[in-house]
Amino acid sequence: MPVLFVVLIVLAIGVDQGIKYFAADLLQGGNSVEAIPNFLSFTYVENRGAAFGMMQGMTIALSVVTGICCVLLLWILFRYRSHNFLSRAACILIVAGGIGNLIDRIRLGYVIDFIKISFFPPVFNFADCCVTVGVILAILHVLLLEMQKKKKEPKADEQTDSNLDS
């Protein structure tokens, strides 16, 4: 399984970097392509900050934090013993997206963003989608674990009844 995890991470990073290469090549210089009228377009943006353009110009700090998070998640991916599909997929997606954007920051000094949805003002990229979906899966994993724990815990009434029986 660990080899599969690495292959999936590398594959997602490759897809991210490939798409960014073509986006930069086709869209750089102000070109914009409307894929679905009034909904989805592709526009080249050089993001020198974090999500939603926050923390502009903090490339080194963002790179360090991203690197630490990726190392931590890789450790969790290979050492955590209670994985299920959601937690594995979450780690793989977050690490792949983080590394994809980290490559841009180190190589270019900014992250290439290109996906624009009409109802969501910030422009984003494939790596951002990986991280977002990964975080959602991680939250679902935690919520499902909590639900399972609550089902296994005896209810207060059951505890009282068992104490009376003894």
TrEMBL record:
The family database entries (Pfam families) matched by this protein are listed as: Peptidase_A8 (PF01252)
Q: Where in the cell is it found?
A: Cell membrane
Bilayer topology reads: Multi-pass membrane protein
Q: Where mainly found?
A: membrane
Instruction: Name the pathway.
Output: Protein modification; lipoprotein biosynthesis (signal peptide cleavage)
Which InterPro entries does the annotation name? Peptidase_A8
Domain of life of the source = Bacteria
UniProt keyword terms in alphabetical order: Aspartyl protease, Cell membrane, Hydrolase, Membrane, Protease, Transmembrane, Transmembrane helix
List the catalytic activities from the record. Release of signal peptides from bacterial membrane prolipoproteins. Hydrolyzes -Xaa-Yaa-Zaa-|-(S,diacylglyceryl)Cys-, in which Xaa is hydrophobic (preferably Leu), and Yaa (Ala or Ser) and Zaa (Gly or Ala) have small, neutral side chains
Top EC class for this record: hydrolase
One GO biological-process annotation of the entry reads: proteolysis
Q: Name one GO cellular component term.
A: plasma membrane
Sample GO molecular function, one term: aspartic-type endopeptidase activity
User: EC number(s)?
Assistant: 3.4.23.36
Annotated signal sequence range: none
Active site residues according to the UniProt entry: D113, D128
Q: Which residues cross the membrane?
A: 58-78, 85-103, 123-145
Q: Which family does it belong to?
A: Belongs to the peptidase A8 family.
The job of this chain, per UniProt, is described as: This protein specifically catalyzes the removal of signal peptides from prolipoproteins.
UniProt protein name: Lipoprotein signal peptidase
Source organism of this protein record: Yeguia hominis
Gene name, per UniProt, is lspA
